[in-house]
Design brief:
The complex is a heterodimer of chains A (about 750) and B (about 350). Chain A has about 750 residues and is α+β, with helices and mostly antiparallel strands. Helices cover about 25% and strands about 25% of the residues of chain A. In chain A, a hairpin with a 4-residue loop joins strand 15 and strand 16. In chain A, helix 8 runs parallel beside helix 17, helix 11 packs parallel to helix 12 and helix 15 packs across helix 17. Among the domains of chain B are: about 45 residues, Uridine Diphospho-n-acetylenolpyruvylglucosamine Reductase, domain 2 (2-Layer Sandwich); about 110 residues, CO dehydrogenase flavoprotein, C-terminal domain (Enolase-like, domain 1), CATH 3.30.390.
């Protein structure tokens, strides 16, 4: 028996002190003697060809080492496949410096390498680039008619396309007592993590490199670099110990990695390439979408007809997709459905998963439509969801592995004080401010994919586990340490978790809220194997009290093994190690989810968000004064870091609803507010009371930990809950995001 | 950013001398705007003349005529929290604190505040046409996304907004800007300091080449009894005004004896309309009267594709802020609306 399991404890981040005191080093902070600095030059046109890059003036500057362009870059891999990565959508991956062709505004076209960053930046500014411009299209809304079905590829496995139509939507919708038809328009968003993208490549000689990279996947980058530059994988080591937020932007290798490695290999020196805030807007982003929803319900409030179409932006070279429309029918079990998802290729860089990709897009449309329908039927919005509660996933005709959404509604409403809501619009006031209550449902798929982990019982009798996984600031280090500790019944201080290094056992990219499930499971199976080995060694000891004991007869506790029948009988790990030649005991294990079992269930985390807004009636200014989110996400490994994830998601949801937007100018085909002064995210003064409830949920299917991951679920329901609250307060239904306050006057 | 020479000036005379010897030089004080502009090649300089080490003009001093002199090199934060400013010119204090962030206010100086450049997206993007950055190339904002742009005093060449909050209060307080240059010292009324774009949008103000702001005088009348600053923006802090209003009221027997109403976020300079202020004189401080004044102030406003809302919003903001000025305790941090 373990005295006190670490799983379930609200442990503070183990690396918290290092981070807040500035001793935690990030990719752009590893210094070596003779380090060179690269600065990337980006295209100022959107489409066309480079006719000339005059680098002569730049090269003449003392301290400028080299200028790389498509004309003098080294010979690289030939095939598209070699530029692919774990998160590559179907299509042809972007190749930096491939040729003279310009595919999008901001495309990297040259790298200036110099002895200082400032010099490289200056030299970059005096390159003379001539272009031959071609006409382009970047406006999704104006090009919706060019929508087409997405291509299918590996990515479709994790992002299924919509199911086929069911029943007779047209007939049922026409016969509905209440109908809502609405269009929802979302613009582009950029991830904007605090830490800028940077790569420091140390050239080790003999075609060997050590790379410090800002990424969400060390192995992903290792494979990418190896493939492109024709290096042995064992000669490419990618390290990413600390990541200052990424939110999806680090799921794919970004071009600073390519640039840094290319320059280091060519110059045989250490090279750092850091992208500035502007340049963060020159790669992946959340794609703009246009959604059309038609929901019809009968007189009892039962939603019988659902049509949900989404048209999303992608690039000309890859088919990036999100799961959007599928959610309508997973959430609400209508028998007549028509779900369609189309892409419009435009002259932009490929979109990229951004926190709660697809889900947060879908939820705004679905949950606003549900709110509008509830209003039409004069049914309370929570009641309306309960009427249409899905006890099973009718879209796939299978049960949920677990679903405590009903409890999210009940407990969230109770904590929020939903019963005090007057259903009439514009009926609640505080002084001259209008008050609105709104709610919405959230959902996020719980995925698990294969990963490996190593577990070692050290000579000191301590546990060391390792995995190549990163910690993007979510608390991975802490949570994995907790999971590992329980395997041997050790306190946290006797457990070391090594991570963020491609030399360590394989882990996939860190995203989709699947890291705890994926890497946590690998650690559990490595731990299990280690326990077996330790017991075997213990049995082999002279006069071992465990000669006839098996796993059920013993406990791992207090730094050793004890007999359940007589806990006083105990052997310490150190004694076992000493008895077995003073050698550490090691196992490496792979955790492979049982796909056949998992496929029988729909696995998802759920949430319900309740929001109060306060709106100045004359001036329109909006404050989200209170919000409660109730989450059902299975077993919560660390309530503290999990709560932080939900809080961060809620703040992001407020941002999505009211502040965040990348402003595009389609005349130039470019983004205009490429900095944090003009790309608005909330400030402290915008965030008020936030409350999180974790609803108890048991799930024996989803993975061995019973845990669903909480990275995205906090975000999903917030934007629609806010939009619905604004409707309740003002009577104005605004279906595009962000909602600007002046739209309320 | 190009390589540049760097000189420290120990006094104003020396600074002006450095500057007049190098026409491609720029003064640097707090650098909160200039450094960004240099980094992105929107501004270039062959020489930076550092004026932070000049011992003069670093204080806030009362003058014999009762006015208060703000040294140009006093930081925005030190000005906002100065006891004399808080007591006598709370409108200025509130306006400063509604601007930028605490970190920026700690660095930015009073002189520099007057000289900050617009936040127009196109001005900050050298790949797009902009008459302010590159005269004669055209105005991208007129046919582009212009939510944050001007509705008053615009020209076909430029619809940029002057972004300062502090200056809106200075306009209301009828401050005087003291200037030194090669031709000696001079003073400008605040209303004459900034310019409208006209056909010279590259000129933000009437400083001559090499001139330097040394101080700002605040006349004795500070409207410390009835004042309010209201700032409407897309988030509660660290965002530029879409509309802001500075109001100072002097009341006598419940009639308006004197009133100042200055607007920010709407034009190439802080906006005041004398006619509206005159109209309010000797009238009751009522919503109806303020609404009439608001109509006068916004007369001639022209909205563009994405910013027409500013016309109605500004009118409502004027009325609200004047009502808030009747009850200055109602003011909220960040100059958010109250009442």
């Amino acid at each position: 028996m373990i005295d006190q399991p670490q799983i379930g404890q609200p442990i503070s981040r183990l690396e918290g002190r290092a981070k807040v005191t500035g001793t935690a080093k990030y990719a752009g902070e590893y210094n070596v003697d003779g380090l060179l600095y690269g600065y990337v030059v980006n295209s100022t046109i959107t489409k066309g060809k480079i006719t000339q890059i005059d680098t002569s003036a730049a090269k003449e500057i003392e301290g400028v080492i080299e200028v790389f362009t498509h004309e003098n870059r080294p010979s690289l891999a030939w095939f598209d496949m070699q530029y692919s990565d774990m998160d590559a959508p179907p299509g042809s991956p972007f190749r930096p410096l491939q040729n003279a062709e310009i595919k999008y505004n901001g495309q990297p076209i040259a790298l200036v390498v110099a002895e200082t960053f400032e010099l490289a930046r200056y030299a970059a500014s005096i390159l003379k680039v001539s272009y031959e411009e071609e006409s382009f299209a970047t406006d999704l809304y104006q090009n919706q008619d060019k929508g087409r079905d997405p291509k299918v590829g590996m990515a479709t496995f994790l992002k299924p396309l919509p199911p086929k139509p069911k029943g007779d939507f047209e007939k049922e919708y026409a016969a509905s007592v209440a109908q809502v038809s609405a269009e929802y328009v979302h613009g582009t968003e950029h991830h904007n993590p605090m830490e800028l993208f940077a790569t420091t490549t140390i050239y080790e000689g003999d075609g060997k490199v050590t790379i410090y990279d800002k990424t969400q996947g060390t192995v992903n980058c290792q494979l990418y670099v190896g493939n492109i530059f024709g290096l042995h994988f064992k000669n490419v080591r990618v390290i990413s110990p600390y990541v200052g937020g990424a939110f999806g932007s680090g799921l794919r290798p970004q071009y600073q990695l390519f640039m840094s490695v290319m320059a280091a290999l060519e110059l045989k020196r250490a090279v750092r390439v850091t992208l500035d805030r502007h340049q963060m807007y020159t790669f992946g982003h959340r794609p703009p979408t246009v959604q059309q929803l038609n929901f019809g319900a009968d007189e009892n409030g039962v939603v019988n007809a659902i049509k949900h179409t989404a048209i999303a932006e992608t690039s000309q070279h890859e088919d990036y997709t999100e799961v959007v429309v599928n959610w309508s029918n997973i959430l609400y079990p209508a028998k007549n459905t028509k779900l369609e998802y189309q892409l419009v290729p435009l002259d932009v860089y490929s979109p990229l998963d951004m926190r709660a990709p697809g889900g947060s897009t879908a939820s705004h449309a679905i949950e606003s439509t549900m709110d509008a329908l509830a209003f039409k039927l004069s049914i309370d919005p929570v009641q309306f969801r309960l009427i249409n509660y899905a006890d099973m996933d009718v879209a796939e005709n299978r049960p949920f592995s677990s679903k405590e959404l009903k409890q999210c509604y009940i407990q969230g409403a109770e904590r929020f004080g939903w019963s005090k809501r007057n259903p009439e619009l514009r009926s609640m006031r505080r002084g001259n401010k209008l008050i609105g209550y709104g709610m919405a449902t959230g959902f996020w798929e719980s995925m698990t994919i294969p990963a490996r982990a190593e577990a070692v019982l050290t000579k000191e009798g301590k546990l060391r586990v390792s995995s190549a996984v990163t910690d993007i600031g979510t608390g991975t280090l802490t949570v994995m340490t907790q999971i590992a500790a329980d395997e041997l019944g050790l306190p946290l201080e006797d457990v070391q978790f090594n991570y963020g290094d491609s030399k360590m056992p394989f882990a996939p990219i860190q995203g989709g809220s699947f890291t705890v499930s994926t890497v946590g499971s690998a650690i559990k199976s490595a731990g299990k194997a280690l326990r077996k080995k330790i017991l075997k060694k213990a049995r082999e000891m002279d006069n071992s009290p465990f000669k006839n004991a098996d796993d059920n007869d013993i406990s791992f506790e207090r730094g050793g093994i004890s007999l359940n029948s007589n806990p006083a009988v105990m052997v310490f790990f150190k004694e076992i190690i000493a008895a077995s030649g003073n050698k550490e005991i090691k196992t490496t294990n792979m955790s492979v989810p049982n796909v056949f079992k998992l496929k029988k269930y729909t696995r998802a985390a759920h949430s319900a968000a309740f929001v109060e807004v306060e709106i100045d009636e004359e001036l329109g200014t909006i404050q989200v004064t209170r919000a409660v989110t109730a989450v059902a996400a299975g077993n919560i490994i660390n309530p503290k870091t999990a709560r932080s994830q939900i809080l961060g998601g809620m703040v992001w949801g407020i941002s999505k609803a009211l502040y965040e937007e990348t402003i595009s100018d389609h005349r130039f085909g470019k983004y205009m507010n490429q900095n944090l002064a003009e790309y608005h995210i909330p400030v402290h003064a915008d965030i008020h009371e936030l409350d999180v409830i974790f609803v108890e949920e048991k799930d024996e299917i989803v993975n061995e930990l019973g845990s669903k991951g909480v990275g995205e679920i906090g975000l999903v329901a917030m934007a629609p809950a806010i939009a619905n609250a604004i409707f309740h307060a003002t009577g104005k239904r605004i279906n595009h995001l962000p909602i600007h306050f002046d739209e309320l006057i | 950013m190009n390589n540049f020479a760097y000189e420290q000036a120990e006094n104003i005379g020396k600074a002006v001398e450095f500057s007049s010897n190098n026409s491609a030089s720029k003064y640097i004080a707090g650098g909160t705007n200039l450094i960004d502009l240099l980094k992105y090649n929107i501004a270039t300089a062959e020489m930076l003349v550092d004026i932070n080490h000049i011992p003069e003009h670093k204080a806030i001093e009362e003058k014999s005529d009762g006015s208060l002199r703000l040294g140009a090199f006093v930081t925005n934060a030190d000005t906002a929290y100065h006891p004399q400013i808080e007591a006598r010119y709370p409108l200025l204090s509130k306006a400063i604190l509604a601007g930028a962030s605490a970190q920026i206010r700690n660095m930015a100086t009073n002189g520099g505040n007057l000289l900050q450049r617009t936040r127009c997206y196109f001005f900050y993007d050298p790949a797009t046409p902009c008459n302010k950055r590159e005269p004669g190339t055209g105005c991208s904002a007129i046919g582009g996304y212009n939510r944050i742009m001007a509705i008053l005093g615009t020209s076909e060449n430029c619809i940029a907004v002057f972004p300062s909050d502090m200056c809106v209060a200075l306009a209301a307080l009828e401050a005087v800007v003291n200037i030194s240059g090669t031709e000696g010292d001079r003073s400008l009324e605040f209303a004459d300091f900034h310019r409208l774009p006209g056909d010279t949008p590259h000129l933000d103000n009437n400083l001559k080449e090499g001139e330097i702001i040394t101080s700002i005088d605040l006349p004795e009348k500070g409207f410390d009894k009835n004042y309010s600053y209201l700032k409407l923006r897309d988030r509660s802090s660290y965002a530029f005004a879409l509309v802001s209003v500075a109001t100072g009221l002097e009341l006598e027997n419940n009639l308006i004896k004197e009133v100042r109403i200055a607007l920010g976020g709407l034009a190439h300079k802080p906006w005041r309309v004398k006619e509206a202020e005159d109209f309010l004189k000797d009238k009751e401080p009522s919503m109806e009267n303020f609404a009439s004044a608001a109509e006068m102030i916004l007369r001639g406003a022209i909205g563009f594709e994405h910013n027409s809302f500013k016309i109605e919003l500004a009118k409502r903001a004027i009325v609200r802020n004047c009502m808030m000025a009747l009850n200055p305790e109602s003011q909220q941090p960040g100059a958010q609306p109250s009442l």
